[in-house]
Structure formats: C-alpha cells, structure tokens
C-alpha cells in the first residue's frame, strides 16, 4: 500500500547510554512522597548536531504527577524544532522537557522517554546533573558523550526531492531498546515452513493475525525521523491489546543501506539500530515481526509509476540492484533469529511494465534481461532469495505476487529455488483489487494455500468501513491463511485505510472490524 507523505519526526537511534540513579531530596511533591528516580541521558551525534534522549524512571512507590526534567549544557547546544514525547524548551544553556499532555503521570516503576534534536559547534559535553520537578537529583554519575557514528555506506544517487511535511499531533517517542537477542529465545515463536503451514519449533501450526505499522519506509528518506508516531513499549502494548500476534514493519532500502540521499542522522547504522530495536521489542513482546522491503531504488517512469525518482521514495515495480545488498545485510543481522520473517518486496507490479503476464512472471522470478520494460537492473526474487541464504539466514521468506501482490496465479509455477525450504506466498487484498471476490479467492488463492503457506500481508478497504475485510478474514480463517490489517497509523481514512485514531489503540470504524475479529479468534 502506498502511504501519505506528511509526518512528524521521530528520534534517532541510541548510540551511547549513561545512567545516573538519583534520589529526590528537598521540597516538592515528589520529594515529600520520598520518590526515587533515575535519569538516563543518551545521544546520537553526527558532528554538527545530535539527538538527545532523556529517559526518566520512577523507582519509587508513589506516582509523579506532571513530571518535568531539567538540565544544562556547557557548550552552545541549541534546540532544533519542538522535540517529541514531551514539551521541550530552552533558555540560554538550560533545557527543560515537560510531560506531554497525553502522559502527564509517571506511575511507580514507570518510565518515559522524550527526545529532541540539537545543533552545536565545538564540543558536545553531556550534562552532569538533572532535576525532576525542580528538585535537584544528587549523586549523579557524569554521563559520557556518545561517539560519532561510524561512516555509513554510500551509493552514487541523485538527491531526493524535498518533501513537504505538516506537523502531526501524534507523539513520537524513540524506539524502545530491548535485548539484542539473536537466538530465537524471545516470546515470539521460531518459525519454519512445513508443507502448507507455518509451524513453531514443536511443529504446531502458527497462523499470523495482526497489523502493519507503517512509517519506517518513508519518514527517514523524507528527512523527518524514523517512524510516524511512537514505537515504544506502550504502543506495542496497545497493539497486543487487540490480540494481535504479528506486526509487519515496512522499511526503506536507501535508509538501511545508508545512501547519500538520506540525512546521515536517519541513515545507515542509525537507521538499522532503530529498526533492530523495534523488531526485537516486537519479538520480545510475543509479536512475530515481519520485515518488509517497501520502498526500493530504481528509476521508473512507465505505466503506473509512483514517482520519477531513482531513490527509494515510492513503490517501484520490482526491486533494483541495491535490494540484493539490502537483503544480504538484513539477513546477516537476523540470521540467528528464526522468529523474524522476511518479506522481499511489498507489492511487485512488473505486469504494468512488461508485455504480457507470462513475461511479467519471468521478470518477477529472474529479473535482469527478463524485464525489458524496466530501465534499471532488476533483482528478481531468485536473486533476493539467494542473497538471504548466502548470508546464512534460514528465516521464513515471503514473496508477494504480481499486480501489487494481488495476483498469485503463477506464483507456484515461478516459485524460486530455496535450499532452506522456507518460502511462503504473500498476498494483498483490498476491495478495489481485481481479485476481490470469494470466487477469485477460491479459484486462485485456495489452491496455492493448499500447497504453501499464504500470508495476507495487507487487508483493507477504502470506504472507512469493515464489511469487506470481515469477509476476507472469515474466508482466511477457514483456509488457515494468515492476515494483517493495513495500517496501525492515525491517518484520515481518505489517505488510506487507518486502523486507529490514536496510538493508545482507539479503533476507527474500519479498525473496529479487525479489533473485534482478532479478539474472537486469537
């Protein structure tokens, strides 16, 4: 699904952490109650600017109302913009971040993380003391400033066009850090393919039912941050409250590979860390993470072109040469974690670019010279599967069909060779697609689902209601087919199917259908 292009920035990835465990003393509500707290100050520095993250934790037994953290810089660090997940302000060298209106109370044992971007020149020494609600926090260790990130890989590419952005009211906290894992020992099950089923390590069938979490595919390349709205523990808990067991995470080739057209603070290792943090947090919360290559490189201006840009700023009919590098890197990152699923390309549409459906399927599988209507080097699905397996990753791999993943008619006949035997089909279905009737599902999808696992990576409808997805879900349940709703974002339904009206999980009229259904079947 294509997404809107107006969002608010999210925090950079964490590069270094310094903690100060602090006791509140003196006057004030928090001190009077004897509350203990800790403040973690972390930064990600790119030379003439940095992202500051301030995490405050209530280590006591009494809630802290209307919390506010204060600290001072010794250099010329200057606040840029409004920050996120709190109200940021600066007076001279003194910085204050106050609780956002939507989360003013810090419960006992709870924590909150706020972030903001700063510019500077010269040195960037970290603050050495903090206050909470105006009360000095004594005994703080001196945090160490984070090192500059290592150079990102770059590619020769035209600069991306500037994108206009409008401020979003949605708070945007940083990706929550979690265990780096890599052993499949988290709560989400290790998955593999057995016949036409996804099964766990004990051979029990797993049917994935959940949501898409759009944002990481477009925020970074447009220069605004990492995600559209929060991807922290609270937002993950909201998804789980719907009884979801899977989350599909769309990502961006340019940002992951660290191409020169992306702002360095949102590219390369910074971006990869943000994605890893979110993926691991989902996994550890018991949600199967599906990494989806949503936007990829390639200059395409033919039929149904989404943009006239070589960079990863829209959907392209097929992945370009850089996608092989992308999947080799992703596979290397997650190869020891079979709980993570790979979706090789969001919505292929080679059928709009080449002549005839047979040639389109050949292009889909083989790429290269099999794609005469696409004027860039295409990486076919076989090439991408090879890239994943050559990296040593045996993770389950999803392959979307043609016609924006709505056509699976020749999927089995063109199925790539996979030494791991862990391929599954990805299908997308909306009420406006060609294959949007049960007769089509029965004639084309059901026979495939009888032989390989089918995951409906996106379900949705453009009428702000849920009667269509109700039919899809009922059909999929009977066929033991997995499905995920598009999308866990707070957009107006005119911009695309949106499941929620806020990141606490309040459903839209469309989202209510998915929420009710998940509660009944999961």
TrEMBL record:
It holds the Pfam family Cellulase. It catalyses: Endohydrolysis of (1->4)-beta-D-glucosidic linkages in cellulose, lichenin and cereal beta-D-glucans. Residues 139-192 are annotated as: Disordered. Keywords: Carbohydrate metabolism, Cellulose degradation, Glycosidase, Hydrolase, Polysaccharide degradation, Signal. SMART domains: CBD_II. Its EC number is 3.2.1.4. Residues 1-32 form the signal peptide. InterPro entries: CBD2, CBM2/CBM3_carb-bd_dom_sf, CBM2_carb-bd_dom_sf, GH, Glyco_hydro_5, Glyco_hydro_5_CS. Residues 153-180 have a biased composition (Low complexity). Residues 30-140 form the CBM2 domain. Belongs to the glycosyl hydrolase 5 (cellulase A) family. This is Endoglucanase. It comes from Kitasatospora saccharophila.
